[in-house]
Amino acid sequence: MTKKIVVIEGDDASPEAMQPTVEVISSLGLDIAWQYPVVGEDAIEKFGTPLPQETKDMIDASDSTLFGSTSGKTGAALGYLRWGRLTYANCRPTKYLPGYQSPLADPTGIDFVIVRENLEDLYLGIEGDVEGLANLGLRSRTARMPLAEYDGRYAIKVITEEGSTRIVRKAFELARARAAKGLSAKVTCTAKYNMLSYTDGLFRDCALKVAAENPDIEFETFIVDDFAHRLCARPQDFDVIVMPNLYGDILSDAAAGLVGGLGLAASGCYGDDYAYFESAHGTAPDIAGQNIINPTATLISAAMMLEYLDFNDASERLLQGIETMYADRLSLTPDQGGKASTTDFCRTLTDLISN
Ligand code: IPM
Ligand code: MG
Residues 111, 181: contact at Cβ < 8 Å? Predict the structure, then answer.
């Protein structure tokens, strides 16, 4: 059956990575129908809203979405793909491939995945003025000054048992899949459960419970500041790392820095009945229009999508091709010390994998 894939190219330099990625995948001869909905500025012009109903319908009727990065213009689509489709598990792999321009003396063997809770935490986007809380009788556990005297703003962090449990379950599922491939498969949980003992403490408690249901899989927890240090000092120690939303956002960018930068940072967001795939990097406005954005993050995200759609051979072929590109340093983009353009990279890759 034909798989319907919605493509949202994203903002700034992002379409320059997305368009040749779609061409690379098209060269694999899979039964895919690409669909391009109207989003962002075009949608505002045509429909008066950045995310018209027909775009949501197209996403709902599709098998998956390949999403470019957003600087805000296509942000409404991102919101729908996450909260509208309940894609609660954001999986962000960091794997060092020989040839990546890592800043580390020895990045060999780095191969872990950050499993970021994708819908809760501070991402509910509930913010306001502190004076609006004055009558709630809230008391600070730390500060002497009464809340009513703060002339400031607040943001709400929500952690639920259901949301935490299902993301940790996803982490254990991934650990099992790694073990089945013969890879090391420890689960590490991290959050700020000393200071935020009620919210992040709940996250950790849920993780401990799920870990107890999976006694055959090694499990550990670290407070997030300690963990950040460990991640930089000994990234090879980790396999599957599960954490609340905001820490996952920050630490996944840091993780990309360990192996060679954001141009290599792939990502997939999975729910129970839908998944979409996006590079974890931003829109790189500084290099927009230059045809030099590194398409690797978008390509690896696309490979994750192909695996999700059961195009396993094609996914493997694409990943193998990317490995060869870096191992042999073929047509690499400037961020990886090469001189090639984005389209050169993708053309070389197409030649490699369609033979
Ligand atoms: C990411 C991005 C998004 C996030 C932004 C664009 C809202 O940084 O996917 O990591 O914070 O989740
Ligand atoms: Mg981010």
Answer: no
pLDDT in tens, 199-225: 999 999 999 999 999 999 999 999 999
Q: If you measure from the C-alpha of residue 246 to the centroid of ligand 2, how many angstroms do you get, rounded to a whole number?
A: 9
Look at ligand 1, atom 10, and give the residue with the nearest C-alpha.
249
Average pLDDT over residues 268-272: 98
CATH of 1-93+263-355, one of 3.40.718.10, 3.40.50.2300, 3.90.1010.10, 2.40.10.270: 3.40.718.10
| Residues 110-143 as b or e (16 or more Cβ within 10 Å = b) | bbbbbbbbbbbbebeeeeeeeeeeeeeeeeeeee
Token pair in block for residue 106: 């020895």
- Token pair, residue 80, equals 């729908």
How far is Cα 328 from Cα 339, in angstroms, rounded to an integer? 14
> CB-based contacts of 184: which residues, under 8 Å, 6+ apart?
178, 239
